[in-house]
Design goal:
It is built from 12 helices and 13 strands. The protein is an alpha/beta fold. It has a 7-stranded mixed sheet with strand order 2-8-7-6-5-3-4, sandwiched between helices. A 4-stranded antiparallel sheet has the order 9-10-13-12. Helix 2 packs across helix 9 and helix 3 packs parallel to helix 9. The chain is globular. The termini are far apart.
Length: 387
């Protein structure tokens, strides 16, 4: 009997280093600052609304693009928070998380052999999704400490096969918040080369030090060529619910995004969609300001502890991750240094190489600070073992 043969597209796939380090953390019963699981409490409004939806019978398939209540709530939220005007009936699709939205967008827009520009350090799922679809990632390396780029860096990566550019703002893992001037440069570049811009804005509420999240589609010339992606895993601490969305001006593309979402996932969980809808409707501006204050404190606490331990942090402008310099630790690679850190302190991180296409990131690891205060305090105490 012939052996089972896997498809060509699986040959580039690898288990996420984030998941690998979570397994290693479990092995030593450590503190998991590697995976962005978001251990903070779910808002009561969101929890109660999902429970009520189950009791009220909201337990069957939704329409391919999601519950109307949630699509309307998403449209209202985008309009109030970011000045984006999308029709909830024809321009928004509810998806299985932001990663599901990204997969559907790439499937709808790209063919094998096409090229897409990513900024690195990148979120690994973006690069892996492209590779799984046999699309070629072309990387522009952001330069610390502010993770900047120059227009010539973009021009160096564009070819006749370039179809799209991905913008993750606020960024994972860097915490980069793209400024308006940077987005204007991207808008000009995308228009000149006829590129689609795919955004991942799931951390839009996690922005610090008075900075502003600018949604790329609000820029002149970008609205009609942007697929805006977001979700609620982080804002409402519901990473396991898998409620995300995509929004786009082009109604025919949105219809295709919906059909692909239906094909791959059928629909996001119906009662959980309702829970998110009621949360968006009922939480006020004070909730988002509380997130900003609480996570600023968590960020500052972790960065201070890393500094004391000699692991210089790149203080993030947004999201809830910190990249830290671990070049002083033993090891020849970021994986070896992350494992040394885990064995010595019991705190798990992600090797920086997981976020780069080439040899970059070997002096970096990523920490997540979306943790309870008690767990974060204990992790900070454990860093003292490095002194």
């Amino acid at each position: 009997m012939n052996a089972i043969r896997t498809s060509r597209r699986t040959r580039t796939l690898r288990h996420s280093e984030i998941r690998n380090m979570t397994l290693e953390c479990t092995r030593v019963s450590g503190i998991n600052l590697s995976q962005g699981v978001c251990d903070t409490p779910v808002p009561e409004i969101v929890r109660r609304a999902a429970q009520a939806a189950i009791d009220d019978g909201v337990n069957i398939y939704t329409r391919y693009d999601g519950l109307p209540e949630l699509r309307r709530a998403i449209a209202d939220n985008l309009r109030r928070a970011h000045g984006l005007d999308y029709d909830p009936e024809t321009q928004i699709v509810v998806t299985n998380g932001a990663t599901g939205a990204f997969y559907c967008a790439c499937s709808a827009l790209l063919d094998p052999g096409d090229e897409v520009i990513l900024f690195e350090p990148f979120y690994g799922y973006h690069a892996d999704t492209l590779r799984a679809l046999e699309v070629v990632p072309k990387c522009v390396t952001l330069q610390p400490p502010d993770w900047t780029f120059a227009s010539r860096d973009l021009e160096a990566q564009v070819t006749g096969r370039t179809r799209a550019l991905v913008v993750n703002t606020p960024g994972n893992p860097s915490g980069k918040v793209f400024q308006r001037a940077e987005l204007e440069a991207i808008a000009e570049f995308a228009a000149r080369h006829a590129l689609v811009v795919i955004t991942d804005e799931i951390y839009d509420r996690f922005v610090y030090d008075g900075r502003e999240h600018v949604s790329p589609a609000v820029l002149p010339g970008l609205f009609e060529r942007t697929v805006t992606i977001g979700g609620f895993s982080k804002t409402f601490s519901i990473t396991g619910w898998r409620i995300g969305f995509s929004a786009c001006e082009n109604r025919e593309l949105v219809r295709m995004l919906g059909h692909l979402n239906d094909l791959a996932y059928v629909c996001a969980p119906a009662p959980l969609q309702m829970g998110v809808a009621r949360g968006l409707e009922r939480v006020g501006p004070e909730f988002y300001e509380l997130i900003r204050r609480e996570y600023t404190c968590k960020r500052d606490k972790l960065c201070a502890a890393l500094s004391r331990a000699g692991l210089s942090p790149h203080v993030p402008q947004g999201s809830y991750y910190v990249l830290a310099d671990v070049s002083r630790l033993p090891g020849k690679s970021s994986k070896e240094r992350a494992m040394f850190l885990l064995e010595r302190t019991g705190v798990a991180s992600v090797p920086g190489s997981a976020f780069y296409s080439g040899a970059g990131g070997e002096d970096l690891v990523r920490f997540c600070f979306a943790k309870t205060d008690a767990e974060l305090d204990e992790a900070c105490r454990r860093f003292e073992r490095l002194l």
